[in-house]
Amino acid sequence: MTRDTVATMPPPRPSPLTRPVSFRFSRDVWDALHAIKARDGVPVSEQVRRALDAWIQLKAPAVTGVNGTRTGPTAGKIHASGKRGILSIRYYDRHGRQREESARTTDWATAARLLAVREAEATRGK
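The chain above was modelled as a monomer; its predicted structure follows.
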């Protein structure tokens, strides 16, 4: 090869299931993340991914995995049913059976609260 013909590889494409993002951290958070990296060897990006996964598990009961599969405590779903757009919730009871009921509303936030109540009841065994 001559100097004019340099073989270059195209940049790697992100996986279709992931998306690159940017964050701004305070200096304290930045230092803490790097201290954990030095101590445990966990890359900063993995620490952020784990923290976001935990936050979503806690706060977003209507999120499902790829192809609508159950993903732990976030197994519930909210969907519109019928022509009027009345929302229904779908969740798993304490015996692992799928249940569906009308949320009797068109408001997603209200339906999400009802879904969270039903999932909490299932977790407590009601």
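The longest strand covers residues 86-92.
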